[in-house]
Each structure stands twice: as structure tokens, then as C-alpha cells.
Amino acid sequence: MLKISSLTKTFGAFRALNIGQINIPKGQVTGIVGPNGAGKTTLFNTVGGAFRPDGGSVTLDGVDITGLAPHKLAYQGLVRTFQISRDLGALTILENLLLARPNQSGEGIAAALFSRSRIRAEEEKAIEHARALLRRVDLWRLADQSAANLSGGQKKLLEVLRAMMLSPKVILLDEPAAGVAPTMEGVLVDFILSLKAEGVTFAIVEHDMEMIERLCDSVYVMTEGHEMMHGSFHEVTTDPRVLEAYLGSMV
């Protein structure tokens, strides 16, 4: 579903990213692990459009998406979450979800003037979709409350829900367990697995090895901006090189 080939990114004289090949299979959860400074977030920033690559290519479902801006990638079906949740606290939880929906007819002047019934129907459908997503993670009772009032774990859930408003093909999850209480982490894991069962593809950067073990079909280990090895969770966490140099006490 997502193919990353020969991808490079430099900052001045420093080469932060030098990927050979990373493949994210359709309908699977692929983990990307490694120590701080290994290039994991730089990889997501480059694939996700925040950074423009210096070389290489990224294809999504066979379509070249290399270097596209984040909003264009979202319309293509590639969305991401962040280490620090980026909710819009001035809006309600429901409004945070509705803001993400694509191709809103009401954004056009002509449609806003002459197609109000169509716009109203689209908005009602979007509200129904958003409330259905909120019910899946038991946040529907909070739909009309400010997003600023959510806990850290609930904000991580909100980011995934907002991504789902775009009907994505691939979601890049950047440390979804960071700052999340164990109970809420369980809700998040169950939700991701349910979305995987529905065909959504995930790549996940995470330091929590228990979460990686529960979620991931396979794992890439990164170091110094490139992929060191790829295998199952068991293969990666029992490889002597990985244990000694990159995972250490996390396993």
C-alpha cells in the first residue's frame, strides 16, 4: 500500500534520512522502532509532506505521492497523527471531526448560495459519521464539549478519529501511546485493531514495545536515518544486534 524507496533528507551537511526500502503492506500494522535520533519522526515528516525529500520516491497504492503537501496527501488517502496531540481546543470534539471532512460543498461560494439543501444533507451525513466514530470509542457523550477538556489519551483517540473522517488508506501514527494512561491505551489499541480489520493500513512509530507487540504484523528497526532490519516482533527483539545497540531495556 505504501512503498518508500531510496528516500533521503539532509539538513545542511547532515544526512538525517537515508532509507533503502520500506514497504507497508495493505491492511497491516507495521511498526517502526529505534532509539531517539534514529530518524523515525523525520521519516514520517518526509513521507507526510512536512519535509520535502532530497531524493527517492514514495508511492501510495501505486500512485507517486513524493513531495506532495500534507493536505494533498490527505486527499490521496495518507494522513498522520503527531507525538503531541494537535486538537483545536476552541472547538467542540464534534467540530474537530467535522472540520476534517473533505470536499465540503459549502466551501464554494456558488454552492453556499444556491445549493443549501445539498450542503445541509452533506452536513447531516458528516455529523452522523462523526457521532458513529465517537460511539466506537465511548466519547459520544462528550461530543459537544470543548476538545481542550480531554485527557491526553482521549486527545490521541481524537486524532485517530479525525483521520478517519478522511476515509484514509494509510494512517501514520507517531507515538500514540506517549503520555497515555494504560486503560486508555487499551481502548486505543482495540480501536486500531478494529480499523485494521476493516482494511485500514497503519505505520506506527512507538517506544512502547508492548504496544508494538500487540499491534504490529512486522517491525522495521531504524538507526542513524536508515532501516537496520525488518522482521516479526520476535525476530527483531531477539536479534543480538538490536538488543545490544538499539532496544536495550525497552524489551
Describe what this molecule looks like in 3D.
The chain is an alpha/beta fold and 251 residues long. It is 40% helix and 23% strand. It has 10 helices and 11 strands. The strands form 2 sheets. It has a 6-stranded mixed sheet with strand order 7-8-9-4-10-11, sandwiched between helices. Strands 1, 2, 3, 5 and 6 form a 5-stranded antiparallel sheet that branches. Helix 7 links the parallel strand 8 and strand 9. The model has no long low-confidence stretch (mean pLDDT 89).
Task: Give a brief description.
The protein has 251 residues and is α/β, with parallel strands linked by helices.
Q: Please identify the oligomeric state.
A: single chain
**Number of helical stretches of at least 4 residues:** 10
**Extended strand count:** 11
- From the N-terminal CA to the C-terminal CA, the straight-line distance is 29 Å
**What Rg do the Cα atoms give?**
19 Å
Mean pLDDT: 89
- What spatial order of strands do you see in the largest sheet? 7-8-9-4-10-11
